Amino acid sequence: MTGTDDGTKDGPRGPARASGPRVPAPWVRTRLRAAPAAALALALLVALTAALAAAFPRAVDRYEDAGLRRTLDDASPRRTTVQFFAPRPDAELSLGDGENALREAALRKGYDAVLAAVDKPLVADRAQSSYGVRTSDPTDASDSFLARPSGLPPRVALVAQNALGAHSRPASGRLPRATDPVTATTSEVEAAVTTETARTLHIKVGSVVHVPGLERAPLAVRITGIVAPREPDGAYWMSTPLIRQPSLIQLPSDGGTYWIGALLLAPDAGPVLLGTPGKPERYWQVAPDTSGPTAHDMSGLASAVAALESGPGLARIRERVDPLTDATTDLDEVLSSFTELRSGIAPLVAVAAFGAGTVAAVVVLMASGLAAERRRGELALLRARGGSLPGVLGRLLAETAVVAVPAGALGLGAALLAVPHARLSSAVAAALAVTVLACVALPVRAAFAHRAVRVHGGREDIASVRPSRRRTVAELTVLVLATAAVAALRRGGTDADSSGGSGDQLVALAPVLVGVIAALVLVRLYPFPLRRLAGPAGRLRGVVAPLSLARAGRTSASTALPLLALLTALTTAAFGGSVLAGVHTARDHAALLATGADARIEATHALPTALPGRIRGTRGVREAVPVSVAYRAQARRGSGTAGETAALVGVEPGPYGQLSRELGLGGFPARTLRAAGPGGGSSSSSNNGSGSGSGSGSGRTVVPAIASPALADRFGTAPFSVQLEDDSKVTVRITAVRDETPAVTDLDFLLVDREALTRRAARPTALLLTGGHLDGAALRRAAGDGVDVRLRAEVRTAYVHSPLQSGAERIYTAAVAAGAGYAVLALLLALVRAAPERSALLARLRTMGLTRAQGRRLLVLESLPQALLAAVGGALTGWAAIRLLAPGLDLTAIAVAGRPAPGGTARLRTDALSLLVPSLAVLVVATGVALAQAWWTGRRGSVRELRAGDGR
Is the pTM higher than 0.90? Predict the structure, then answer.
């Protein structure tokens, strides 16, 4: 006989009894082992949703940051650099003190003070920032070897800028030096010039340029070197472009021209400028670091720039440098242009984000509802056995959190890896919101379902359950919110609240709220036809149709949630697809108006006679329509009246009218422009090129014309004279009015038959080309020099310039796709929820003689009413949302990014594909799932589905 460790003896048979109480198995571990598939599905759903939610704000940050950097890089350094300048030192100072103020040490001290006044997030690029002293008024250089385009002497500015050697490399000679202390009376100094200045002004190493002196002899500037900028486009050189390349100036009086260039002195040679009449000034140029700022810092950037330009920063600089210091920059305008573009795009992206987020949230709620329905009997039994509601809810929260929290962290980590280099806080907040929703959805659902202890409940199908007062109040509240959002968007547009407050969010939620209202209304109306059809269906022959209708009426009353997900997804997809289609249409139309055809070849002079033939022989060209355009023609009624500028376009009526019809730009039949009389109404003077057209004002011939609406309102149908740029005249009468025409854009125009013009005026100045896959390089080679070639495809591509546009389109597309995916998942969850009951029903009916084909038809017909309701309702809701919200939506910002584009404002229009394709996809998915379920149930057999004690 053996004993235990504590000295007691075991019995002769059986295992030893435990001395303490039995420890029950942990609840969470037991539940996870009991349903591992459900736990894994929840983890995948939470991880995917958290990853998408966390990736969205980071993706928005990335494309907005890229757009800000592109905006700053595209702007010239002359605009983005903050320039501080101070006049020459006070005249009350001694000459020595004034000279010392222009030496590099004093300027460096002021430079340090300027940099200290720059507040974050604005950061100075020290490598490209500069300081020095220069003559603000360039003076004449009368040396004979300098270039004189029209006999006028060039003017030169003397510039002593720091770090010349670090930003240039000698092309010949050496850098200038100031070996001895330079003063205002120094007779000769050394200087360098850039390669472009040397080539343009005919300066060589060893040349001496004489600059007039102030109460002294002229200053001799000896050129010791010619330098090439290391970064010619950097802010060091381009903040003041004159130091890199000279500029040709034209006098407004007689048209004479002269050059202005810069001579680069040694940094310590600044005091010599006091002896010249060039009005020397000190300057400090702060170039911003364009790689550091982010779009999230825009308000801080704007404040920092304003502080330097006219705020506390400038006050500190004046206190430490010079009271007369002033500042100038266009950086605030550059930042403002970016802000305007972002404010025009962000609300559209928010619409897609709110739509996809709503569908994702509904799917998470549906997943918790599926779990609550699956465990209804278990939870009811726990409550019936004395389990407290807080205790049951705590256990549900614990078992859900064990799965959801790691999954949410995994999704967050995946988002951080997939979209790096963006803000962390917004991503963490989004993933945390998804995780919290997944954790609390099941306990909250169970709390409402089991707040009272009961074992059996009544019927809960939609045909029998009546809506409660609470539900009615909730639906009316949502209706009021949706109405307010739609009204705000129609009244003020997507930028109604530029501050991004709650009003802006309500506007972004408007399409979602429209879908919510439609879902609530359809759920309210759905039982009525089912009740009306229940009686007649019972008298039909056959069992499938009446049984499927009865089964559809017995669907759970909680069908509002999947219907809400489907309608919201379909509305968002229709809305988003129409937005994207509207953007592409706006770009196409703007590019078409800018070119007038698939390509445009134009010159300021008459095109060569052989050019149309060469162009027609180029690969891809189908037709080349010649036109002559006089952009500054003067239309007037009577010799004493003031003329109105208009574009007179001479066309060949047949080909040009056909081109206009094909492009949809004011087409017309050829007879509209045919002049009356032989030869189209042109007089002999038209053919000999004498300079007067057939309508010279003598009344011999009146030429029919097609006019723009403004000219038609001004001149009516009475004849009037038009004087062309070559002083020839033609008398026209407006016979038709068109809003647009391919030849000109955004100008008042008159279209006339080219035969009515003089030979000189009728010579083509432009060719409008049509064809597919046009080769721009080949067209430019065929056109030759001095001719502008524009392709419609190239112009359209130029409209997509900012990463804000391309990034917003990608985000919008991804959001719509994610919403569609979650909608399919919602449909699958709704069908999975009813799958066990349907499988059991099929098994029972097969024992009664139901065939496999009848079973398939039964499941398909049972799922069709809700799928049809969602498809038709989604299409109608999407159409209604677009019609309601289109007046307040401006797509111009995302379409053309603020670039000059013809065509006016781009508005939202209904896209048929975006309405029909998602709705048809819902029907296809619902039918496919029903067929798959019928096939799978047939493979499993009836015995397994009819187990004893199964409550299905």
Answer: no
